[in-house]
């Protein structure tokens, strides 16, 4: 029996309520807090268990150090403009040894990526929907002649 199959068997034997209680305690121990979304999702046990199974599998199979995963999570949360997620992952990263400088660096990188995404998307939409500037086209040909 695989580790995953054993985990599913344990969930079935323990029941969803007991499984959730145990997992949330482990999350609080490891991260220093339980995310608000997990607390709310506990009202729908199958959704929370499915979410945590997916999350745990991604983390369990990762070759990245847990601190690095948290730093990446800060960057993603910041770029997605989720202050609650940013705060949670910032505290978790600090608990795992991330320095102030490392956290500020990933926030800066997230800002660069978010800015690039805005520009790339907006310029493509502009190219599709705005009339081309004929004077700009003439100017670009003049530069090629010199």
Mean pLDDT: 90
Broad structural category: mainly alpha
Give the CATH architecture of the largest domain.
Up-down Bundle
> CATH class of the largest domain, please?
Mainly Alpha
Rg result: 23 Å
User: In the residues, how many domains can be counted?
Assistant: 2
Could you please describe the fold and organization of this structure?
There is one protein chain. This protein has 146 residues and is mainly alpha-helical. It folds into 2 domains: 1-61, no CATH class; 64-146, Up-down Bundle (AhpD-like), CATH 1.20.1290. Helices cover 82% and strands 0% of the residues. The chain contains 8 helices and no strands. The protein has helices spanning 3-14, 16-31, 36-41, 45-61, 66-79, 83-95, 100-129, 134-145. The radius of gyration is 23 Å and the shape is elongated. The N and C termini lie far apart (72 Å). The mean pLDDT is 90.
Secondary-structure map:
Blueprint: H1 3-14, H2 16-31, H3 36-41, H4 45-61, H5 66-79, H6 83-95, H7 100-129, H8 134-145
Keywords:
single chain; 146 residues; mainly alpha; AhpD-like
Q: What is the structure about, briefly put?
A:
This protein has 146 residues and is mainly alpha-helical.
